[in-house]
Amino acid sequence: MRVILAGGGTGGHLFPGLAVAREFQRRDAMTEILFIGTSQGIEARVLPREGFNLETLLVRGLKGRGARGVLDACFGVPASWLRCLKIIGEFRPDIVIGLGGYASGPMLLAAAARRIPRAIMEQNLRPGFTNKMLARLVHRVFTAYADSSRFFPGAKVTQTGNPVRWQSLPAVSKWEKFTLFVFGGSAGARRINFAVLDALKLAADLAPGLRVMHQTGQTDFPAIKAAYAALHFEAEVTPFIDRMDEAYARADLIVCRAGATTVAELTAFGKAAILVPYPYAIYDHQRGNAEALAEAGAAEMILDQDLTGERLAARLRFYFSARDRLLVMAKAARALGRPEAAARIVDECYALARGERTRRRERDAAQET
């Protein structure tokens, strides 16, 4: 089996694709995987470390780039499409899967031109413009939410859930202290970073029994690292965490955004969280994600505009004392999880590839007669 996974740019697009790639490899170690992305996206940093090959395209988004963006697209999209045709000719994929992000469009257009089986993965409840357009060209649309089907041709939709990167969390030695894990996605979240610092200053009396893991993102790392030096909390502060599975495994409580990948991981592994949805996400989809978990008793939601050090300190004190409440939240989160999502997507991809091989044999037989 040869598989192309196209897209990326952010962890929300890339990491579900990594989960699917790993599932293909788990089924058959001889599976050949090729990722298509850009040199500016997170994939350029993550995929080489994960042992996957990456081909990059020049394509970029148009939003917010004015006339220069239009000029870049006039060159980048056709050039990327031609490059994708060349990649398909050399790699000869059995299926192409779009992950979202700028690189998925040219590759899926090229796959359609070469009559390669193709699918897209939609991580959010409401798809963006690109995936809504690409849905016309693909054979399957894999969605995380049942309600997403109203945005796509119904016959193509398969609700799988959002794939997560690990089959299970690793067995790690739990720290004796209550462990708070803070992150804002692969690039960090300034609002969360500084609100957590303010909260810890107000909750300094918890320091003897509380340990912090804080992923800051590159931009805020120097300032946040320096600020922790003035606090008395035991803390691990880093711009990016490679072994997120170990961090999840050690965490008693998580403070984070509510992106689709994060929510999928919280529910797959049953982790209690305070969710602060990113307010500028398209269609405000992070708020919808957070509300779904909060309504199920799996998380607490604090809106970005309501996030203050005082409020967060109060919630930290509450959960520090009410460990039983965290167990209830974790159980509710696990009930919402779809840890089998990657396996379901791979099942469907194998079926698509088999169907195309059968059709080709039938066409060849018809031509011979």
How would you describe what is shown here?
The chain has 2 domains: 2-164 and 339-368, Rossmann fold, CATH 3.40.50.2000; 178-335, 3-Layer(aba) Sandwich (Rossmann fold). Helix 9 crosses helix 12. It contains 13 helices and 13 strands. It is of the alpha/beta class. Helix 4 links the parallel strand 4 and strand 5. The longest helix is centred in the last third of the chain and has 28 residues, at 341-368.
Mean pLDDT: 91
Number of domains: 2
How many helices? The count is: 13
- The strand line-up of the biggest sheet is 3-2-1-4-5-6-7
Low-confidence stretches: none
In CATH, the topology of the largest domain is named: Rossmann fold
Count of extended strands: 13
For the record, the CATH class of the largest domain is Alpha Beta
- Tell me what portion of residues adopts beta-strand conformation: 15-25%
Q: SSE string, helix = H, strand = E? A: EHEHEHEHEHEEEHEHEHEHEHEHHH
What distance lies between the first and last C-alpha atoms, to the nearest angstrom?
29 Å
